[in-house]
Amino acid sequence: MELIEKIKKTAPDATVSENGEPVVSVSAQELHQVAEALYADSEHPMDYLRDIVGMDWGETGLGALYLLESTWTGHRIILKTVTADREQAFLPTVSDLWKTAFIKEREVFDFFGIRFLNHPDMRRIFLREDWKGYPLRKDYDMNSNPLNMENEVNADITDEYFLKPDGTIADKKNIVFDQKDFVVNIGPQHPSTHGVLRMRTSLDGENICKVDPILGYIHRGIEKLNESLTYPQTLALTDRLDYLSAHQNRHALCMCIEKAAGIEISERAQYIRTIMDELQRIDSHLLFYSCLVMDMGGLTPFFYGFREREMILDIFEETTGGRLIQNYNMIGGVQADIHPTFCTKVKEFIAHLRSVIKDYHDIFTGNVIARTRLQGVGILSREDAISLGCTGGTGRASGWANDVRKHHPYALYDKVDFKEITYTEGDSFARYMVRMDEIMESCHIIEQLIDNIPAGEYKVKTKPILKLPEGVFTSSVETSRGEFDVVLESHGDKTPYRLHYRSTGLPLVHAMDTVCRGQKIADLIAIGGTLDFVIPDIDR
């Protein structure tokens, strides 16, 4: 309420919707002024822009939700703004306050056609430059883009829109790469981008000058598909986002729907969900270790990581039926009870992992080649990590304590003891060490829970067709790569009006330009490996 009162001093006409999460509506003209006041607030500085969620409110107009948080106090707030002009939709940029808005606003433009005044690069980011229309608008013609097999021409000149003194809008051209730049493509078929990611990289000799990510090669329109699915049906799509955080992604969506529907799940289900999330984190970090070492030329550690990871997948498969794709979390609990041997095998696995983790460090962590190629390379400052929205191990390696499990606990994370792993160096080696240390912390969390799973039902009964109350609802979890948010707007129907996922990887890919500038081209792959992004999560 204190923050809302401060907003009303800057924007007296601001209104608050109490349906679901409190959402403060401000006019497009006042948005930047309000954002600037919140960013500079002396008590609760909103220095972390969690996400920008583009919206089409039909006759009301086009707009966005801005999810803000103070890294100092943990306070959160949601701003809403709208423009009634659908043909010439403009909003002010906030990329001068938060660097992550640079790529988030391009995403909103790509799918909704909203242009941001004073944003220096209004190109599409996922779709082709010659794409017709904006797919997440409610009036989008699904037949407007027949299959196009022509080669796409990259736009190296982009538009920047600004307001002239007489109140009219003009534009100017900005150069992305000029003809003098030596630009090479990294990907989209490069094996070490871990998916179809393309980075146009300009070089001065061996030194990187600029990294321009080209995304969307496996874009599947998951957020558009959600609008025609019932709430139980939407769950299946979360497993295909960050497939190395499948349990955690689905956990977040289930929590959001359960919160909106007022569904209380059993304590047994909470225990099971928490244990599964931590096994998934270990699984992901083992794969991170394996692939990073292989990208840097090592082969034996690759087999080490896969050996232990297969043990986790065997445990998953016995209970959930899946190995990579996990469809275990359900609205109201979990799909089935744990396998009779689950607890025994989990304890045996943790004991085994503790006995072999020294081998991981002996063969790689202390290796002179690994240290030379990772230490002092790809440095990301704490301030840049926050401004770019680089959560998870990447942010914590720069000294930013951002673990959702600690700062906004859910499930059983407020009932277990664990350390939030942080380093201050901000380099590639620190990012590596955060994840290696987190493997041991995940083991510690599981050990506190595995012998104490209470009896009871694993899933409460729910209606096959759910209708959620009107409002905006959110939930956050700490996935293997950072903060994953679900933003759901319901209009009281059996399908969501809008269901958006905060990609953990999009800010990490955006950060490549910051951490790679001035580094050698030979370091790009190792830097990208320690940022640990997963492409389907970015493309969605």
Automatic annotation (TrEMBL):
It is found in: Cell inner membrane; Cell membrane. It is an enzyme of class 7 (translocase). Gene3D superfamilies: Cytochrome-c3 Hydrogenase, chain B, NADH:ubiquinone oxidoreductase, 30kDa subunit. It catalyses: a quinone + NADH + 5 H(+)(in) = a quinol + NAD(+) + 4 H(+)(out). Keywords: Cell membrane, Membrane, Multifunctional enzyme, NAD, Oxidoreductase, Quinone, Translocase, Transport. Residues 24-144 form the NADH:ubiquinone oxidoreductase 30kDa subunit domain. The keyword Oxidoreductase applies. It is a peripheral membrane protein. GO terms for cellular component: plasma membrane. GO terms for molecular function: NAD binding; NADH dehydrogenase (quinone) (non-electrogenic) activity; NADH dehydrogenase (ubiquinone) activity; quinone binding. InterPro entries: NADH_Q_OxRdtase_suD (IPR001135), NADH_quin_OxRdtase_su_C/D-like (IPR037232), NADH_UbQ_OxRdtase_30kDa_su (IPR001268), NDH1_su_D/H (IPR022885), NiFe-Hase_large (IPR029014). Residues 295-463, 467-540 form the NADH-quinone oxidoreductase subunit D domain. Its EC number is 7.1.1.-. Transmembrane segments: none annotated. In the C-terminal section; belongs to the complex I 49 kDa subunit family. PANTHER family: NADH DEHYDROGENASE [UBIQUINONE] IRON-SULFUR PROTEIN 2, MITOCHONDRIAL, NADH-UBIQUINONE OXIDOREDUCTASE 49 KDA SUBUNIT. NDH-1 shuttles electrons from NADH, via FMN and iron-sulfur (Fe-S) centers, to quinones in the respiratory chain. The immediate electron acceptor for the enzyme in this species is believed to be a menaquinone. Couples the redox reaction to proton translocation (for every two electrons transferred, four hydrogen ions are translocated across the cytoplasmic membrane), and thus conserves the redox energy in a proton gradient. NDH-1 is composed of 13 different subunits. Subunits NuoB, CD, E, F, and G constitute the peripheral sector of the complex. HAMAP family: NDH1_NuoD. This is NADH-quinone oxidoreductase subunit D. It comes from Phocaeicola barnesiae. The gene is nuoD.
